[in-house]
């Protein structure tokens, strides 16, 4: 009589159990129609009337937590299912007319999580941030500090590090409610502005993840795009918003964006500037097509000194008159004038950030990498470098080359 092997049956039963677990692959599925897809978030300080009438509180019991930003007003854009264009064939009219593609909701809260939970009370489906692309902070909230705001987004696994975070001169709520004429989805309108700015070399590729990384560095501060809402629902990219630690301390104009990129050597170049023709009242327009920079750290009398070499190359795009012909001597004069103007502008931007103790260029990281002994002995902390940066010696050397002048001038 053949004997039975109990181990054989045990292995068979275990195999059946393991195979059965593979049949439940969709047990935790969630249909996309059952999610509230958040496309954009705007964060403001709550108005006084909202502070006194905060009746949406849903998560906090007893005393509210004390934060540097105070009570927050959070606005979200939620995609309306079936109304978002999926391709070129579904374009249609912009946000100024037709069916709305997003649903805008707002609520107050003592933290971002608290405000979003209050918004969740108004939405049937759970908020989903996997499609979040834009976060807008008002200038007022950024000046108070963004530490607790960044804390929430860093912890949320659904938030991508490739999202854009903006600082706006107006209230962020107004940006979330704007209805652009050329786009059906307001968030896509903002994304297109940034995509074109990157393509044309008018803004650095500085996503929220890079902002967090720079803010966490001991020798560098973070920057964000600075936007403002103009009459007629037009959003302008007005400059850079630069920080000291977690606080907004200043902004630049649009031309200073390209100056920042020039010092950092970020490609591609897209700046344009007018140059006065010597001994006349006429001008030419010069457009940069290429730029490169080299940053070097040297020690002078026991102190670090930064030396920056910048090379600019571009074309003459326009002349205000045809009464003169461009020759080699005149081109050299233009190059010299451009060099002097550019060097002065670079130095003014550096001094502007030094007054705010905001090293947005990352000079401190060069010092920390090239002179580690000095850093460990004299600096050590981010706060110490902020004070050191205020009096840091930075020497600029700029070279400008005009490559093309145009067929008519030749």
Automatic annotation (TrEMBL):
Residue ranges annotated for the Spore germination GerAC-like C-terminal domain, each copy included: 238-406
One term under GO cellular component: membrane
Primary localisation category: membrane
Compartmental location: Membrane
InterPro entries to which the protein is assigned, alphabetical: GerAC_N, Spore_GerAC-like, Spore_GerAC-like_C, Spore_GerAC_C_sf
Lineage summary: Bacteria, Bacillati, Bacillota, Bacilli, Bacillales
Membrane topology recorded in Swiss-Prot or TrEMBL: Lipid-anchor
NCBIfam families referenced in this protein's UniProt entry, alphabetically: spore_ger_x_C
Coiled coil: 332-359
Family: Belongs to the GerABKC lipoprotein family.
UniProt-recorded name of the protein: Ger(X)C family spore germination protein
GO biological process: spore germination
Organism: Paenibacillus cremeus
Location of the Spore germination protein N-terminal domain: 28-229
Entry keyword set: Coiled coil, Germination, Lipoprotein, Membrane, Palmitate, Signal
